[in-house]
Amino acid sequence: MRWPDRVTLWEVGPRDGLQNEAVTLCAEQKIAFIQDLVAAGVKHIEASSFVSPQWIPRLADADEVCAALPRDAGVTYAALVPNLRGLERAIAARIDVAAVFMSASETHNQRNINKSIEQTLPLLTEVAKQARASGMRVRGYISTVFGCPYEGAVDVSTVRRIALTLLAGGVDEIALGDTIGVASPRQTEAVLEVLLRDVPADRLALHMHDTRGAALANILTGLEMGITRFDSSLGGLGGCPYAPGAAGNVATDDLVHLLHGCQVHTGIDEVLLGEAGQHLSRELGKPLNSRMSQVLATEKGACS
Ligand code: HMG
Ligand code: MG
């Protein structure tokens, strides 16, 4: 294995994590969570979603949260943007990266954003065009790449077509979503093999949910194939409310520990990240799912 010296992690906990937690944090708690992440050295944070508050009530305070983001630490902030209305809100909040999103399966796309795949593509490329004209970068999520909760298997040629259309339409980077955590390392390899024929590795990211415990193995497969951009959420928070059974993202604290153990740099301070996790766990009133948060809790118990 050729290990890269450094990778880029996108922290999606404040968005993907908090959109699907039983407890709704208030804006001050969300801002404190983001401040903790920044203090730990996290440089890319998906802060919230400018979607319909009827569809995602837990992130209805996106405008308030994004107006208060710590701006002096060289952090890049992203937010989900489903349409031009969302883009206007993201521009007003001075978000750096508009994250557009759609699915590679028709049913999940309908349930999540109320449109067909064909209706979505021109809409997202228009959002991408206008976002770039406003000086933003654009990230394009493709969900259900590795399987759909409604349709099962998803054809990789559909993923490829969507990725190429979005990239041609002005999206800078494609994040491949294992929305319900069904991928295996072998499938990750097969999907990446197809995409890497046309798309450079530095324009692809992996967004793996850890429903079945395979996310770290899938990420290692991605690393082996030259991918260096990975999404994760602190403590393994999260899931898609329109994907039944979807569990959290791969845990940032577990991923950082694994990478640092392999001398792959992330720029993140593990101790401060652990403290951020403990703070978040207190705010949510429950233990986090990550292995590292459990290790910390055990060590603390042993020392007290
Ligand atoms: P719609 O109902 O078809 O839209 O929803 P509409 O244009 O008919 O508008 C309906 C209402 O929403 C109107 O309000 C609009 O003003 C309002 P009303 O007149 O009824 O009072 N509205 C908005 N309000 C605020 N901001 C906006 C906005 N747009 C419309 N931007 C829509 C279409 C896309 C808006 C809706 O389906 C939606 O918001 N969906 C979001 C779903 C979502 O956020 N899902 C979770 C994130 S995706 C995910 O987690 C997967 C990912 O992590 C990757 C992976 O894991 O695979 C990214
Ligand atoms: Mg997700």
Description:
With 304 residues, this protein is of the alpha/beta class. 43% of the residues lie in helices and 14% in strands. The chain has helices at 13-17, 27-39, 62-67, 84-92, 106-113, 117-133, 156-168, 185-196, 215-224, 252-261, 270-284, 291-303; strands at 8-11, 44-49, 76-80, 97-103, 137-143, 173-178, 204-208, 229-232. The chain contains 12 helices and 8 strands. The protein has a single domain, classed as TIM Barrel. A 6-stranded parallel β-sheet has the order 2-3-4-5-6-7. A two-stranded parallel ribbon has the order 1-8. Bound molecules: 3-hydroxy-3-methylglutaryl-coenzyme A and magnesium ion.
Structural class: alpha/beta
Tertiary shape = globular
Query: What value does the Rg take, in angstroms?
Result: 18 Å
Q: Bound small molecules, which ones? A: 3-hydroxy-3-methylglutaryl-coenzyme A, magnesium ion
What is the name of the CATH superfamily?
Answer: Aldolase class I
- Structure summary, number of beta strands: 8
Rounded mean pLDDT is 96
